[in-house]
Amino acid sequence: MADQVGQRAMATSYAAKASEQALAASGERTTAAAANWVPRIGLTARYTRLSNFQPPSIGGSTGSFVGTLEPGGTVNPSPTFALPANALSFPLVLDNWFTQAAITIPISDYFLRIGKNYSAATRSEDAARYDLAASRAKSFSDGKIAYFGWLRSRGAVVVAAQTLAVARAHLKDSENQFSVGNASKADVLRAQTQVASSELFLERAKSLEVQNERQVRVAMHSGEDEKLVPGDSLEGSVPPAPGNVNQLVAEGQSARPEIKSIDKSAEAARKQADAINAGRYPVLSGFGDVTYANPNSRRFPQQNEWFATWSLGAQVTWSPNDFLVAGPQATEAAARANQLEAQKGSTRDGIEIEVVQSYQSVVEADAAVVTTQRQLESAVEGYRVARELFNNGRGTGTTVIDAEQALAQTRLDHLNARVDARLARVRLDHALGRDVRPVNQ
Q: Which pLDDT score, from 0 to 100, does residue 88 have?
């Protein structure tokens, strides 16, 4: 059931959901970066109403133009005709309609910016994917830890109930021995004190069980109406402890998604630095447009009719402002990449310590399971002998109470050792990155 709790915690974790949204946002940024490969296309449609006025004539207000239908260069052509000078003027078109389709191709940016920005976006998306894997793995591990903590508290309730039963049995023995003169009133009172102490121990254990059950419910985000029934026994065996700690450290440092995320983030920062640095250089772009307008401004004189024209060209632009800004911004991005590299070293050191601590916890817990088992066997026998001697009038109540306390403590120690053996393996698996699930989205 521990894996089921971990899976449920991973599926319902708010931290994991936040990482999922971060990955989705990063994916959209990658899509936007890919769209920059497409030439920029612009469409324009416009209508303009112009104010009316009297247009000036070419020849002024007086005089005439003399014309003929004869070919040019004819001497004394005939016939001729006169045209008033003020009759020659350009027409006004007051309703202007304009449509245009334009395209711009960032030729130099294809090589200097767009490709690098796209590479930076894809690496940032990979980093977000590793962040999601790390968040899910932590939620999975935390869910299992909460589950075994709940099992520990349930086991503590059993131990407390056993301790209370032992204390009550000793109280009854003390009362019986007191009635026949083999024990003093002090023995009975001490036995009563032990019963009261055991009752408090049981209540505290029950309170802790309620708290730990709540932690499991919070981790799983389960409702109050959902019944939780443990499906694991602490009496079963656990996998043997792995052998070489140096190999474990190497495994953890190579498998943990946190390090992979930092690697991708550093690569993205360096790609961004390269793209920003392109601002130092001139930008070459090609452009073209098709205009369909009434009247078309390229046609002279204006006429009230639709007319199509087109144009193609190339341009080189450069700004000293971009040159001055690109250098510091590129240096900043490179410094951010170096910062991430340093953070990677710190993370590797932290993982090494985490792996070693988790490994030693496994070794220690396994040893504790063996030793506390022997202690428990001795404590059970010691209590049996002490109680038998007391009931036969050959022992004291103090000896029995000491044996009771030793038995209760040994039971708790053995319970904790079994739980710790499982918790240590959960933490070791997390430190090694073995609880990481691949992220497909």
A: 60
pLDDT at 71: 74
Q: Report if residue 175 sits inside a domain.
A: yes
Same domain, 310 and 370: no
Residue 274 and residue 158 share a domain: yes
Calculate the dihedral angle through the C-alpha atoms of 58, 62, 63, 67, rounding to the nearest 10 degrees: 40
Residue 294: left if φ>0, alpha if ψ -120 to 50, beta else—which one?
A: beta
- The helix/strand/coil state of 37 is coil
Q: Is the peptide bond prior to 301 cis by the omega test (within 30 degrees of 0)?
A: yes
Residue entry with tokens 């102490």: 197
pLDDT at 300: 82
SS3 of 69, please? coil
Q: Do 291 and 405 share a domain, yes or no?
A: no
- Chain-centroid distance of CA 175 in Å reads 65
Q: Which two tokens stand for residue 337?
A: 């990449």
Task: With beta carbons less than 8 A apart as the criterion, state whether 397 and 183 touch.
Answer: yes
**Same domain, yes or no, for 142 and 216?**
yes
Considering the entire predicted model, what is its pTM?
A: 0.83
C-alpha dist (Å) from residue 156 to 153, 204, 253, 372, 373: 5, 9, 37, 15, 16
CA distances from 334 to 123, 271, 382 (A): 15, 9, 70
Question: 215 lies in which domain range?
Answer: 2-36+108-282+320-432
Residue 78 belongs to some domain of the structure? no
What is the distance between the alpha carbons of residues 44 and 293, in angstroms, rounded to a whole number?
11
- Tell me the mean pLDDT per 10 residues along the chain, length 441: 88 94 96 95 95 69 63 70 62 90 95 94 96 95 94 94 92 87 86 93 95 93 85 79 89 94 96 93 96 91 90 94 92 95 95 96 94 94 89 84 91 94 94 87 52
